[in-house]
Amino acid sequence: MIDFHCHLDLYPDTSSVIAECIQRKIFVLAITTTPLAWEELRKRTEGGMRIRVAPGLHPELVPQRFSELPILLDLIKQSPYVGEVGIDGGRNLKEHYGLQVNVFKEIAASCASMGGRVISIHSRNAAKDVLDVIEKTPDIGIPILHWFSGSKNDLARAIKLGCWFSVGPGMLKSAKGKELLNIMPRDRVLTETDGPFVEMEGSTIMPWDVEKAEHLIADVWSISHQEVQETLIQNFTKIGSFAKSVSNGS
Ligand code: MN
Q: Are 104 and 136 in contact (CB under 8 A)?
């Protein structure tokens, strides 16, 4: 199983979640919301050969934490994976929208200058501006739009720009989410949970709940659960090879 967008460090019991991910052999991209969390989480996940930790700066935290941008830009040199980054067009963030766009532009430019990165991107209510940055930064690497919720036109443009997508039970419970999934190229889809910020049947979503996403994908694509798993592993392998090709042996 693959959970390509999970906030492992924000579970109240991070250690036991990490231990269970290792025991269940789940591939996890542990994204962070501040670059300051990266080092600590790397240490805590050292025993997990299937866990990668990505330095990020969540767009919702940009107004308070944009001074940490230089730290993130420095970590981008070391890590082939970056996230969570992006732009949020929510009403409460309107005042700082321009700042978010500028921060995301700098992050994208930094990824491009390193030969490209695998980037987990937040684009809620901001698909157009996120895609503008991606379009203007062709060497950004592999942009993965997490929980994409834009319009079908935005999606068509994202596909044209070479974007990938990570989808989870939270997104796929809506008819719109399923409709978008049906349009996404099957060779550019990964699973995610966005845990712990999603509730499922009254409890917090866990990385192994990506299995529920696999079943939902099987329904939408009208193929077997096993075929979905095979496709996801193939996709994941491509991402892994790209990450390896751009990392300096670290
Ligand atoms: Mn997230």
A: no
